[in-house]
Structure formats: C-alpha cells, structure tokens
C-alpha cells in the first residue's frame, strides 16, 4: 500500500478525533474514546504516523499568553515564477520562525503567509529586515489580525 492509499476505518476516525481534541489523555482513555483496546491504540497510532496521516502530536499554545500579541496575514506576489525566485522565497519562509503558515494560492496573490510577533514594532522589524529584503518579492500587502473568530488545527473527520 502506498503512502497516500491508507484507508481509515471508523475506529481510526474516532481515534484521530480524540487525539485532535486532547492528545495528552492516556492510552486507556483514547481506547475508550475510540472503542478499541489500549494495545490497538498503540498499533493504530504507529500506523497513522507511518502513513503520514498523523504528522505529529504537539501542544497548541495561546499566542497572546506566550507573549506574541500581534498576528498578520501577508499577501505576497513574486517578481516572476522563475525557479530561483520561488526557491529564494521558500527558503526565506522556511527559515522564519515567525511564519506559522504559508500557502500558495491562485489569483493575484502567489502566497499567503501568517506571521506572529511580540507586538507591532516587532512585526515592522520582521517585515523590514526579512521580507522586504527578499529580491524575489515584487509586492506585499499585510493585514493585522484584530480578532480570531476561529483558529483550530482540528480537521473535520465526520462523527467522532
């Protein structure tokens, strides 16, 4: 079976749903929530990790309580789509811890990135010292996030 051909059964979906809600619960609790045995929890999680369905188990932080009070969405348009420009931009983004999301999009914008910063002056420093120095970028437009109406890492898996 190839990596992208994994079939998820209902127990897998319940297990993934439970892990998305709170990965810190015990294997016994996960087993109850997924309606499988504790030994099945270990085997299923290992299989889901092996196939890349479960990329990792992490703690989700509250940015403001972690001292990151400013977030922004930045729309980026590259100068052109030459391989060197694309690579330069991608390398920059990969090196920037402040970038928490980067997606390639259709339309007038090539990429959307989400940046977190301590405050507005720190955001300005990030833009001026990192992003504006990237020769691959032709145009940037940023919007400061005023309020998060929904911010989740949970995927809709159906009834879990």
UniProtKB/TrEMBL annotation:
<dbReference type="InterPro" id="IPR011008">
    <property type="entry name" value="Dimeric_a/b-barrel"/>
</dbReference>
<keyword id="KW-0804">Transcription</keyword>
<dbReference type="GO" id="GO:0005829">
    <property type="term" value="C:cytosol"/>
</dbReference>
<dbReference type="Pfam" id="PF01037">
    <property type="entry name" value="AsnC_trans_reg"/>
</dbReference>
<dbReference type="GO" id="GO:0043565">
    <property type="term" value="F:sequence-specific DNA binding"/>
</dbReference>
<dbReference type="GO" id="GO:0043200">
    <property type="term" value="P:response to amino acid"/>
</dbReference>
<dbReference type="InterPro" id="IPR000485">
    <property type="entry name" value="AsnC-type_HTH_dom"/>
</dbReference>
<dbReference type="InterPro" id="IPR036390">
    <property type="entry name" value="WH_DNA-bd_sf"/>
</dbReference>
<protein>
    <recommendedName>
        <fullName>HTH asnC-type domain-containing protein</fullName>
    </recommendedName>
</protein>
<dbReference type="InterPro" id="IPR019888">
    <property type="entry name" value="Tscrpt_reg_AsnC-like"/>
</dbReference>
<feature type="domain" description="HTH asnC-type">
    <location>
        <begin position="8"/>
        <end position="69"/>
    </location>
</feature>
<dbReference type="InterPro" id="IPR036388">
    <property type="entry name" value="WH-like_DNA-bd_sf"/>
</dbReference>
<keyword id="KW-0805">Transcription regulation</keyword>
<dbReference type="InterPro" id="IPR019887">
    <property type="entry name" value="Tscrpt_reg_AsnC/Lrp_C"/>
</dbReference>
<dbReference type="Pfam" id="PF13404">
    <property type="entry name" value="HTH_AsnC-type"/>
</dbReference>
<keyword id="KW-0238">DNA-binding</keyword>
């Amino acid at each position: 079976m190839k990596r992208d051909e994994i079939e998820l059964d209902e127990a897998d979906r319940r297990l993934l749903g439970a892990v998305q809600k709170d990965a810190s619960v015990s294997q016994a609790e996960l087993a109850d929530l997924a309606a499988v045995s504790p030994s099945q929890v270990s085997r299923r999680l290992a299989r889901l990790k092996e196939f890349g369905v479960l990329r990792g188990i992490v703690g989700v932080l509250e940015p403001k309580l972690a001292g990151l009070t400013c977030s922004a969405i930045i729309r980026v348009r590259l100068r052109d789509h030459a391989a060197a420009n694309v690579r330069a931009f991608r390398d920059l983004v990969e090196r920037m811890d402040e970038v928490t999301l980067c997606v390639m999009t259709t339309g007038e914008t090539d990429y959307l990135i989400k940046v977190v910063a301590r405050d507005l002056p720190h955001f300005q420093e990030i833009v001026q010292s990192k992003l504006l120095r990237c020769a691959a970028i032709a145009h940037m437009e940023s919007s400061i996030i005023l309020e998060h109406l929904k911010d989740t890492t949970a995927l809709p898996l159906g009834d879990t």
